[in-house]
Structure formats: C-alpha cells, structure tokens
Amino acid sequence: MTRTTIAIMVVLLATIGLAGSLSAQAQLRDEPRVRDGIIYVGMAYEIAQKCDNIRARTLRGLTYLQSLRNTARNLGYSEAEIDAYIDDRAEKQRLEDIARAQLAALGAVVADPASYCRVGQAQIAANTRVGWLLR
Question: Residue 89: which domain range?
Fold first, then answer.
C-alpha cells in the first residue's frame, strides 16, 4: 500500500468513528431517563442557588448523577460516548435552558428569589425528583 492509500484509510476510519460517536451522543441526548434526570438536578441546583432557605442534597445529587451514568451505560453507551455527552457545552446550555424554562413554568421568577423558595418548597412537599434533591 502506498502512503496515500494508508492516509486515506486512516482519515476514513477516523471519520466513521467520529460519526458513530456523534450519532451515539445525539441518541443519548434524546434518552429521557438520562436527559430528564440531568434537568432535575439542574432545577434543584438553581433553586438552591437562588433560595437561601433551601439547600441541595449534595451527596444525594452526586449519587443520582452516578446512577444516570450507570443508566446510560446499561443502555449500551460507552464511557467515551457518555463523557462526550457530559462535556458537550452546547448540550449543557440546552439542558440549563430547559431547566430554567421548567422552573419558570412552575412560577420561579429570576428577579424574585422568594419565588424559587416557593417552587422549591412545593417540589419538596410533592416529593418530586427535584424536591428529593433538596432539603
């Protein structure tokens, strides 16, 4: 084989590998068990940041995030695919925007920290996943 042929094969294999990774990443993005869990953690974090009377259950949150990683792994995603999804800045921003929109739909107003406290207390009282991540 010539150097050109080898170079073309290397580029082709790299392209196929990248396409497979991006495809898997897009699929993981659409997996509700993982995506929604990350959104719930984001909502709980935002509430804890805005409301002085509510704290995040940090250990519970970290354990829950690890369970989401395990869920993705059990669904057949590789560690590299999971890491690529987690490290995707655009996806992180998209999920943060969804979390903030859901908080707004529940009554949280950016300029009104007390509204985050009300939403947080309601989530805790209803024992939702978000409330489960707060105290």
Answer: 3-132
